[in-house]
Input
Amino acid sequence: MSVFSPYRFAIVSHTSKLETVMKSTMRDHEISLDFFDFSYKDPLRMVRNLLDQGYEIVICYSALGTSLLYELGSSFVVIPRDDFEIIKALSAAKKIAPNIALTVCETENIDTELIESLLSIKIKKIMFNSLETLSNALDKAINEGIQVLVGGGLSYAKAQKHAIPFFRIKPNQHNIEHAII
Output
């Protein structure tokens, strides 16, 4: 399927792996995508700067994306995380330890009880609604001695800093394509 788009798309993400997945997913579409690393210092300013630079649409893969969506409106599209993506990451993490910390944005609806029963694991939800609450909740969980962490970009940085095994939640091709087309 070929799609003509007069729009300039900016893609922001905490992982460079998204660029590889998106280019592979979109290779049959006539869409130009520019990729940028997600700024955790001031994500709202970063996205506004991209819009000011002439990008009509900014697409984001981050659990923080939903909170930005409320600020930015229709020029901002979030690639959602779904339970299956989370199950994949938790399944890999289970090989390290059965007690797993998982970052969960307050706007996400994740059936952790079902996932726990399916995978025979215990999930410690690290709840957040902003970059600040995520950082604080991660620090608290690390101080409490979490053994393994599943999440995104900021979670990865904290896990690396404290030598905690980390498993990234990766977007699936369907959600990527749905966000773009």
Summary: The helical segments are 17-26, 43-52, 65-72, 83-93, 112-119, 131-143, 153-161, 173-180.
